[in-house]
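Quick log. Single chain, no ligands specified.
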Amino acid sequence: MTTKERRDRDFSDPASDAGALLLRLGVIVLAILIPCVSVISRRPLFVLTPIGMLLVIIGSRLEPMRRTRTIPRLCRACLSPLGLATLLFVVWAGLSLAWTPFPALATDRFLKTAGTVLLAVFAMGSLPNRVRVSNANLLPIGVAAAALAIIAVAIVAPAIARAEEVDTNTIHRALIGVVVLVWPALGALAIRERMALAGAIAIVVAAAAVAVWLPSALTALILAILTFTSGFSNPARTGKVLGWVSGALIFAAPVFPLIVTFALGGRILANGMLDVFPEWAGIIKSDGLHLLTGHGFDTSVRAYALGRFDAHAPQGLLFELWYELGVIGAGAAAALSYLAFSIAGRASHSIAPFLLAALTCVVALGSAGQAIAQLWWLTLICIAAVSFALVIRSQHHLGRVSASVVGAAGTGLNTPIANQPPL
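-> predicted structure:
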């Protein structure tokens, strides 16, 4: 090493160490503090998430030897098919503020949502190409601790855990967070071939879902496990099939209530599995132009709160997309879903099954009635996305360190390991 190289390395060490520390603190906030504190309170999610992501961004930018050019990377991502579909969806949601009946409240919600998503995207784009594996190891710690805390609450205070309303039940929100975040956590263990530990954490999360007994979370977990099993053998084909299924389900959602209502008519029992379809069919028939444009961003949430819908009105991903953003927003969401599944299926074989399982979990939870416009739900998805980006950037340790053997007269072994980041 020359004198200049040694001087440059010594000069960069303080900044590199500070960056590594801030990045580690940011991951601790996102991976451990948020899942665990969410068991006892709903507010820390909104306070800690921007703090954690800002720490990740600042820490990544302070590592001079490993930082990347964030803006060009984000520009390339925005110009990709997935990025363009996302931009179309966000722009259309923003335009719908012009005709929403609640402009002030909807604008406030849109700005908060867009800010959270933008912060998450910038955090993912700022991550170094090589992240220390010890950072990804924090993900399973947070998920396991939160799942055990949920089980403890379910045993000590079962009445709290069995309350029905997800949007106001802290334990239910915490469980949904664990069910979504468990997949990047398992991926972090899988890339290190810690499959026994991954299986143990999966069992703990399943036990938490059973202890609380939240049907939507249990269903999403089962479907995600089935997706993982299929994706493990053929991730590309699984991603393509799930992309078509999810895209068609989103885009053709209004057809189902019309068909069911026409076929069954008055035989649909109140409080049954299909009792939401007559109300939904009635909304479709009376919407007119709103089928194309939607009623505007955040309309369904306000309509539920003000009692404008019948008690049997549908909730969740399929209904809210169509009601708020119409056929244009639903088409953009369908394209986004198809591209996300397809791209996840083409990821590295070690991480693709976990990406597919997480996407299935998110779509299943949304379709089961989870209010997709709620800020806590979108914040949770952003944390999961940053967690997966962290896992993907930590896969560098799987490659062998390059070495060249010079066999002439004891010249020796040259092992260029200086460029490898410490683990």
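Residues 3-124+132-254+313-396 form one domain.
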